[in-house]
Automatic annotation (TrEMBL):
UniProt key word Membrane: no
Top-rank lineage group of the source organism: Bacteria
Cofactor annotation: [2Fe-2S] cluster; FAD
Cofactor mode of binding and number, as noted: Binds 1 [2Fe-2S] cluster per subunit. Binds 1 FAD per subunit.
Binding site for [2Fe-2S] cluster: 222, 227, 230, 247
Role, per record: Responsible for channeling the electrons from the oxidation of dihydroorotate from the FMN redox center in the PyrD type B subunit to the ultimate electron acceptor NAD(+).
Entry protein name: Dihydroorotate dehydrogenase B (NAD(+)), electron transfer subunit
GO MF annotations in UniProt: 2 iron, 2 sulfur cluster binding; electron transfer activity; flavin adenine dinucleotide binding; metal ion binding; oxidoreductase activity
A Pfam entry, by short name: DHODB_Fe-S_bind
Organism: Moorella mulderi DSM 14980
Length: 262
């Protein structure tokens, strides 16, 4: 159920250059949240800036805690990074369509850069549902691999890739994943990250006839499907193109349904 509420800041930590981990007390949203959904955050004490900021839910605990991992990219998120424990932040959520989660299967999660944000929550829920999780995580260098200790504590099978070779496999995370697809016999795949990485993920999933979902990253204004500002191009079963709001039809979509040529 959609909630519009004042969430209390429990903690805010800087994890890297312009990257922050924010823990909020928002029990109504935390209890309802599903992996892949997002919240719309008012990044101001007033209405300037006017538009909220959409942030993927990084984690949600059973004690009413909601965790957001985000990168400062403008004055809205810069304001968010200055908030201290005890202060209140207005958030709206949970919003959007999340991931489809099976039980007792072998899953591959492929994260590129900050695309790991929604996949950590997915990994936690997937493990709780009795699934085996291979988590493929890539970034430019080892300093931009965030939340590694959290992932290790969750007991996922963790595979790392960096562009410069400073941690794990040297090269794109999709290249690393490609090496394991035949031998691991996955039941489903999931990905989030830069669009070229998602396109490569979708291509590989199709080649191996693997059911797969992707979380798309688009600029969202209203977050409710009214403004049509975050439209993605999709294709139906006949190959015809059509358009869908990412904020309401997604942000999670069937990887095979996305029109990657745009």
């Amino acid at each position: 159920m959609l909630q519009d509420l004042e969430a209390e800041v429990l903690a805010s930590h800087q994890l890297g250059q312009d990257v922050y981990l924010l823990r909020l007390y928002a029990p109504l949203i935390a209890e309802a949240a599903q992996p892949g959904q997002f919240v719309h955050v008012r990044c101001s004490e007033t209405f300037d800036p006017l538009l909220r900021r959409p942030l993927s839910i990084h984690d949600a605990g059973n004690k009413g805690e909601l965790t957001l991992l985000y990168q400062v990219k403008g004055r809205g998120t810069a304001w968010l990074a200055r908030q201290q424990p005890g202060q209140k932040i207005n958030i709206l959520g949970p919003l959007g369509r999340g991931f489809t989660l099976p039980q007792n299967k072998r899953l591959a999660l492929v994260a590129g850069g900050m695309g790991m944000v929604p996949l950590l929550f997915l990994a936690r829920r997937a493990l709780e549902a009795g699934n085996e999780v291979d988590f493929f995580y890539g970034a430019r260098d080892r300093e931009q691999l965030y939340q590694l200790e959290t992932l290790k504590a969750m007991q996922v099978n963790l595979f790392l890739a960096t562009d410069d070779g400073s941690a794990g496999f040297q090269g794109p995370v999709t290249k690393l994943w490609e090496k394991y697809i035949p031998e691991r016999s996955y039941d489903r795949g999931y990905a989030c990250g830069p669009r070229p990485a998602l396109a490569a993920f979708a291509r590989l999933s199709g080649e191996f006839s693997l059911p797969a979902e992707v979380s798309l990253e688009e600029r969202m204004a209203c977050g409710l499907g009214a403004c049509r500002g975050c439209v993605a191009t999709l294709r139906d079963a006949s190959g015809n193109r059509y358009y869908e709001n990412v904020c309401t039809g997604g942000p999670v979509f069937d990887a095979a349904a996305v029109y990657w040529e745009d």
